[in-house]
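Human: I would love a firmer grasp of how sequence relates to backbone shape in proteins. Could you go through the record with me and say what the backbone is doing? Here is the record:
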Amino acid sequence: MSELIVEPAHELRADGTDPVEDLPPQTLPLDAWHRAKGGRMVPFAGYVMPVQYDGIMAEHLWTRSSAGLFDVSHMGQLLIHGQGATAALEALLPGDLAILKPAKMRYSLLLADNGGILDDLMVTRLGEAQPFGEAEGEAFYMVVNGATKYDDIAHLREHLPDDITLNHLDERALLAVQGPQAVDALDRIVPGVATLTFMTAGAFDWQGHALWISRSGYTGEDGYEISLPADAAEAFADAITAEPEVKPIGLGARDSLRLEAGLPLYGHDLDPETTPVAADLGFALSKRRREEGGFPGAGRILAERAEGPATKRIGLIVEGRQPVREGAEVIDADGNVVGRVTSGGFAPSVQAPIAMAYCPPALAESGVVTLRQRGKLHQARVVPMPFVPHRYVR
């Protein structure tokens, strides 16, 4: 498991301390539920969250073979709407939102003026369905990372035109059901979700509560993310975990699952100094936007696409059984530090240590790199990501 500490995206004090650390961590709507289920609670992204219940390895393998329930209510859920919202968001994101149809979603990036990544996110165009109340004009539902959500909200409010409304949906919880049997379990209690395909969403009703459900997730497995009123979260969690396929899963297995799936974690594999090209996220730059530009950092990003970045994100399988953790150095033949590991841990499905790292493209092309952790050298083989195949239902 890679370290579960996200670097702050906001300003530090002059002495380097983090003002957010002085604030008491927030609790999730399911805090008591997690504790009653035996969850071991830890601070993460400004919240107290369950890191594990029955053990990270067991939870990881259960999700890969059956289905797991993840509480991701720390994430930021935003409703952005108004006439011209499409163009306003395209000024901040590199995706082609103009062709995005209602109930379709896209992975995208909030970019700084220098082309660095402020956050990665999911954005969905809303149509006639109004699961979050009345939204005027063009409407989008956006999910951003929990550790950066307040900075994201401030950035969006600063840069969106005054006639575009941004609502922080902080009265809603967000749960994920992930795994090959997620569809069987969820469709029993919310009939109709099986008709969704990967990266599509829809409005559903459960016991009188308005749900917004997308077929998406962060494990590489088939699954769903469910936005629902916070006061309905405990009853829903009881209902879905009463299904024999589903067990509660903590942050530890969420991290190892996403690492095996080759999915970057903001604050570790992505940060304001990293561009989409270096991060190997070129798919988030849609064809029209690559041709037209018009998004923050377009000059630098498009130049990197043409000429190649100075460093690139790569996948590694490490020799032996010892995991190599975040912060380990990538060194060249002369012993010079030329890169670093950003995520690493033992992969239960691969049965080997794996890692993501940034290094010069020429070194990555050699197929083998040397890593140094606490003075010890490790050999690693460069491999394509994901480390395990994605099993999305398209």
